[in-house]
Amino acid sequence: MRIDKFRYLAxxxxxxxxxxxxxxxxxxxxSLDSKNIYRRLEPPKDPxxxxxxxxxxxxxxxxxxxPNEMNRQLTEIENRLARxxxxxxxxxxxxxxxxxxxxxxxVALAQETIHTILNAGNDYGxxxxxxxxxxxxxxxxxxxAKPFGVGHLRSTAIGGSLYRIFRKLGxxxxxxxxxxxxxxxxxxxxxxxxxxxxxxxxxxxxxxxxYDLYVRFHKEEETDPGLSEEARQAFxxxxxxxxxxxxxxxxxxxxxxxxxxxxxxxxxxxxxxQTGESFYNDKMEAxxxxxxxxxxxxxxxxxxxxxxxxxxxxxxxxxxxDGATLYATRxxxxxxxxxxxxxxxxxxxxxxxxxxxHFRQVFKVVELLEEAESLPPSEQISPRLFHVxxxxxxxxxxxxxxxxxxxxxxxxxxxxxxxxxxxxxxxxNPDLKDIDRVARQIGIxxxxxxxxxxxxxxxxxxxxxxxxxxxxxxGPYLQYTHARLSSLLRHYGNMVKPDIDFRLLHHPEExxxxxxxxxxxxxxxxxxxxxxxxxxxAYLLGLASAFNKxxxxxxxxxRIDKILSDDEALTAARMALVSSVRTVIxxxxxxxxxxxxxxx
Length: 600
Prior knowledge:
By secondary structure, this protein is an alpha/beta fold. It contains 22 helices and 13 strands.
């Protein structure tokens, strides 16, 4: 199915009608070919007014016409064209003030949509538009020897979802976990462990223990300034290749990854590469030399920097006076390495808004390097770089910090959500098979959806009662809708077929659901275009709500109009609709990284 087939058809008819109405120079003056019209078609504010609306005010002003009269003449031509060609016969045009409204025949829309879903299954909404081009997605990126806190949820959930979305659209996503495994903080950790560490405690609960040591270091540092210098020296020893220091660092790294992978397994998150900052240690010097050769790097107070003052940005620090490199140096090196390795169509950095200026600096340095080296457009990287930023996760209105110790472990959040889900199941459906597995699906899904249900730019104020609310606009509500649809299909017991009488799906509630189903491929494209899975979450809530109105619809006598009835033809048609909704909810949840139980 071509994405938004009927919108393309409507744009063609409107374009032909405008050309007929304003033949010659007048039509050329308003520059409205079918592609331009397609982009400007929008849904009417009131769904009852049609499926699309094309505003005529701008064109009427250019041509010196009254938009209402122009619209009346235009719709006469459009409806004549639609009646004259079978391909367009499913469309009707109406003049509503200055808006040229398009109505799609309900039977044609139902047939196109349900046929496609039943035939495609979970491939509905997939496309080959990406042409297997590489999309590098840098996400999650926790710091070694620090806990995987709830603050890491946003990057991991958003990045994991974008990975699935771009794969569905025919791209080849490359998921990279850019681990924070290098920098001065490891000098602090090593000093803390050497001063106060205990091997037995480390073996018992490595990351928790290392975290406690890190918090202690910062408290002790307040009264013992010498600790800071000791930490800098320890990190310098790492950079200089001191074997004993590096062995301790590697031990922390291995223990941390074992803990992180438990969380990734719970979330179903996959990475193609888990290469941290340390991966670029032997690659940075060549990049620094390249920047110096391009005349971009200069010495300032003993440090090596790229001056960005003319862009109202702080200088990008490449190397400190003591020779230590920085996060920016490794990011610039990483961008150049990833371009050489993957020749990506885009590179997405799913990192919090707090790093906004950092990425502006890094991306600008790459852009300046391209200008200095006069690279052709095909080899330019900077237009392909995107910072997918998101707001903070807060706890009781406070930003969490590993330094201060006010952090919630994500594994604990999942454990509590799973336990609550299990209690709910035992209360409502104690005979359910495999309760533990379903509780896990519901609990983890609840936490992920609570995150993704917030637009990525906004802060999330972490609140147990909201995150673990199993009613209302939540992940468990969508999972329950999916389970109920699955139950209907089991009770139906027959194979759902697309050769049904689509005229039977004529109630407004059913037509609204079909409109939702038809839009799913466009929703996936929109989520990819703005790098926000929230678009899919909001859509699924709307679809579930629309279907529940079908489920609760009453007939003329005031009784529930049951989906399963003695009318075989009507039941077959409605079950085709049920199956289609179930497929889309299942696939939509999957794109968000949430499992859909068959029973709850």
